[in-house]
Write a structure and sequence with these properties.
mainly beta, Trefoil (Acidic Fibroblast Growth Factor, subunit A), six-stranded antiparallel sheet, two-stranded antiparallel sheet, 12 strands, protease inhibitor, thiol protease inhibitor, cysteine-type endopeptidase inhibitor activity
Length: 160
């Protein structure tokens, strides 16, 4: 299977160059860090098809063995807003995300939202986002008409 490799820049960008999703190891929270050649093995991700329809994916660490087994999962048993996401090799625990092109209010190219395919609650959409500590978390955004797009967390996918 040929799978594309991406870096995921959290947006809107913070600081010069932005901050990128970075793996710290199995069971550890996924954090953000500046793009760094020494972190290349921790900052490359693959979007692995999660199920049909085609816009559902698992976010998995890209590795040279092409097994893509390490993916984003909740810290606990279920997705809880504002709790960090961690890396796991348990495929059945990987969160399946909708990956959708996003018309970013600041005009950024290659902007996408990652929303949990099964948020477990009605009235909110769970977005992959970051918090003030630089951890990748899930943010619950109310489902309301004409929502201000500036509050929607998104990611810039840069293919490598």
């Amino acid at each position: 299977m040929s799978v594309a490799r991406y870096t995921l820049r959290a947006s809107p960008a913070v600081g010069i160059g932005g901050m990128y999703a970075t793996a710290e190891g199995l069971g550890e929270p996924v954090r953000t860090a500046a793009l760094d050649p020494s972190l290349v093995d921790q900052q490359n991700w693959a979007m692995i098809p999660g199920s049909i329809p085609e816009d559902k994916y698992r976010v998995c660490l890209y590795n040279s063995e092409n097994n893509f087994s390490s993916g984003w999962t909740p810290l606990g048993e279920t997705i809880v807003p504002d709790q960090p996401l961690v890396l796991t090799d348990d495929y059945n625990r990987h969160i399946v995300w909708y990956l959708k092109k996003f018309d970013a209010p600041d005009g950024v190219a290659n902007a996408y939202t990652l929303t949990a395919a099964d948020p477990g609650i009605i009235g909110a959409t769970f977005y992959a986002a970051t918090n003030e500590q630089g951890l990748v978390v899930v943010k619950a955004i109310p489902v309301i008409p004409d929502i201000d797009p500036s509050i929607i967390p998104y990611w810039v996918l840069e293919r490598h």
